[in-house]
Amino acid sequence: MNRYPPKSRYLFLGDYVDRGQHSVETICLLFAYKLKFPDSIFLLRGNHEDSQLNRVYGSTDECKRKYNMKVWKTFVDCFNYMPVAAMISYNVFCCHGGLSPDLLKISQVDLIRRPCPIPEEGLTCNLLWADPEKNISGASWIFPADVAERFCRENDIDLVCRAHQVVEDGYEFFANRKLITVFLHPITTSSLMDVLECF
């Protein structure tokens, strides 16, 4: 771990923009890495990779201030093509938000058509916005522990990995360790690396 691509592969779980004053630089760096190392860098869409939220949380204004609206519209076009879920080693399902009552089989994710804006409800919305029962944001479906456990059992996977919320120590397990929420920043990164070594 902690090696540069292509020696290591990296999966990012979204929300690259609207997080401070350097959204443009952050997304440009990640897109550049994806272009240079397409088999080593994987970028999932988060709920903030959305034109409506960008207007509210500042990355639209940041982009207009530093460049122009054409650049921002290009970012939005890219966001609409980003995948919303990924698998790690066939046993860890990853998304930005959480599970959905519409998601019974992982293969359903392959049927999500792109490009698409983020809908207000349904599978794509939940994969970007849903929260486990104890972390209620109110924007999407709230799923109890048994839903995560059943999803893992019925899809023969070990874990659902999500982001979307700040959690102490950079990670928090839920549903008898069948779901993990991760939130990385410099203070929490080392403790999360200890957890990931278990998988």
Which architecture of the largest domain does the CATH hierarchy give at level 2?
4-Layer Sandwich
Radius of gyration: 16 Å
- Compute the average pLDDT: 90
Number of strands: 9
Please give a quick description of this structure.
The protein is an alpha/beta fold and 199 residues long. Helices cover 34% and strands 15% of the residues.
Architecture overview:
One of its GO terms (cellular component) is nucleus. It is an enzyme of class 3 (hydrolase). It comes from Blyttiomyces helicus. By secondary structure, the protein is of the alpha/beta class. It has two domains: 1-83, no CATH class; 85-198, Metallo-dependent phosphatases (Purple Acid Phosphatase, chain A, domain 2, 4-Layer Sandwich), CATH 3.60.21.10. The protein is 34% helix and 15% strand. The chain contains seven helices and nine strands; from the N terminus they run βαβαααββαββαβββα. It has helices at 23-36, 51-57, 59-66, 69-81, 123-129, 145-154, 189-196, and strands at 10-12, 41-43, 85-88, 92-95, 131-132, 142-143, 159-162, 171-174, 179-182. The protein has a five-stranded mixed beta sheet with strand order 3-4-7-9-8. The chain has a two-stranded parallel sheet with strand order 1-2. The longest helix has 14 residues, at 23-36. It is globular, with a radius of gyration of 16 Å. The relative contact order is 0.13.
List keywords for this structure.
protein serine/threonine phosphatase activity, alpha/beta, 199 residues, 5-stranded mixed beta sheet, Serine/threonine-protein phosphatase, Purple Acid Phosphatase, chain A, domain 2
